[in-house]
Design goal:
The chain has 223 residues and is of the alpha/beta class. It folds into three domains: 8-64, no CATH class; 74-114, no CATH class; 119-220, 2-Layer Sandwich (Zincin-like), CATH 3.30.2010. 40% of the residues lie in helices and 21% in strands. The chain is built from six helices and ten strands, in the order E-E-E-H-H-E-E-E-E-H-E-E-E-H-H-H. A four-stranded mixed beta sheet has the order 4-5-7-6, covered by helices on one side. A hairpin with a 2-residue loop joins strand 4 and strand 5. Helix 4 packs across helix 5 and helix 4 packs across helix 6 (207-217). The longest helix is centred in the middle third of the chain and has 28 residues, at 110-137. The two termini are 33 Å apart. The structure holds zinc ion. Zinc ion (ZN) binds at residues 182, 186, 192.
Length: 223
């Protein structure tokens, strides 16, 4: 039988082992520091049935949120859903004006066109938000990039380069602002210390609901 892959094993001072299937069908195992990997793998293999059925359900749900690129389907942009119309003929393969319009000649690469559109929109919007917060709070960053990271929404390097995930452009502006101010705050506080959250609060006081939104809905920001 094939071995069950643990996507993330989190060790801590906890006393018991817990298994969790994430919305994108990953298995997270939380375990006490002292318990051997062998014991954990044994337990996981005993729970095979439960894990596999949970994973299948999560995967099906996840697949259902993937886009099919048909007229009437909705696409998120800045937290709002806009519908797609497939058109007969148009000069630009994909454009946006109150709705998304995609030329039917480009259906075969619809996903790439949408990603390109989203990346561009993310670049423009994040640059605008960065300059707003930099002007207001005297932050200085080196450069910023739009990335395709699987898990991270943003990051800040030791050299002061900021990275932001293009999928953020699907989220409400307050969520984008939270990630932008979060990474800007890392220019001054590297770790998620009490000082970090305190500083962030002075810059973006309503960060908590935005953070919560991302934790709850982040897995839906896919196409
Ligand atoms: Zn951080």
């Amino acid at each position: 039988m094939k071995k069950i892959i643990i996507d993330n094993l989190i060790r801590s001072k906890r006393r018991s082992i817990s298994l969790e299937i994430t919305p994108d069908a990953k298995l997270i195992v939380r375990a006490p520091n002292k318990i051997s990997l062998r014991y954990i793998e044994n337990l996981v293999s005993k729970k095979r049935k439960w894990i596999e059925s949970k994973r299948m359900l999560a995967y099906e749900k996840y697949r259902a949120t993937c886009k099919k690129f048909v007229s009437g389907e909705e696409f998120l942009y800045l937290g709002r859903a806009y519908s797609l119309t497939i058109t007969d003929k148009q000069n630009i393969p994909l454009f946006f004006q109150h709705e998304f319009r995609l030329s039917k000649d480009h259906l075969s690469n619809a996903r790439q066109l949408f990603i390109k559109w989203y990346k561009n929109a993310a670049l423009t919007k994040i640059e605008e938000r960065l300059s707003l917060y930099c002007d207001m709070f005297a932050f200085k960053y080196n450069k910023f990039n739009i990335t395709n990271a699987k898990k991270r929404w943003g990051s800040c390097s030791v050299k002061g380069s900021l990275n932001f995930n293009w999928r953020l452009i699907m989220a409400p502006l307050s969520v984008i602002d939270y990630v932008v101010t979060h990474e800007l705050t890392h220019l001054k506080e590297k770790n998620h210390s009490i000082d970090f959250w305190g500083k962030l609060k002075t810059i973006f006081p309503e960060y908590a609901p935005a953070k919560q939104w991302l934790r709850k809905n982040g897995h839906l920001l896919i196409i």
